[in-house]
Amino acid sequence: MSAALQMAGKDTLVRVRDLSVRFVSRDATVHAVNGVDLDLAAGEVLCILGESGSGKSVTMRALMKLLPKKAVVTGGILVDGRDVQAMHENELQEFRGSTVAMVFQEPMTALDPVFTVGKQISETVRRHEGVSQAAGMARALELFELVQIPSAKRRLDAYPHELSGGLRQRAMIAVALACRPKLLLADEPTTALDATVQIQILLLLRQLQQELGMGVVFVTHDLGVAGEIADRVAVMYAGRVVEEGPVTALMRGPLHPYAKGLLGATVHSGMRGKRLTTIPGAPPSLEALPNACSFAPRCVEAEPACLAAVPAPRSPIPGRTARCIHVPDNVAG
Amino acid sequence: MTESPLPIDVGGPAQPLLDVRGIQKHFPIKGGFFGSTVATVRAVDGISFTILKGETLGIVGESGCGKSTTARLLMRLMDPDKGSMIFDGEGVAENTQTGGITMRDYRRQVQMVFQDSYASLNPRLPIEDSLAFAPKVHGLGDGEARERARELLAAVGLAPAQYARRYPHELSGGQRQRVNIARALALRPRLVILDEPVSALDKSVEAQVLNLLVDLKESFGLTYAFISHDLNVVQYISDRVLVMYLGKVVEMGPVEEIYERPAHPYTRALLASRPSMDPENRRTEPPLSGDPPNPVNPPSGCRFRTRCPHAEDVCAAREPIDADLGGGHQAACHMADPGSGHSQAGRLAA
Question: Do B276 and A224 touch (CB under 8 A)?
Answer without folding.
Answer: yes
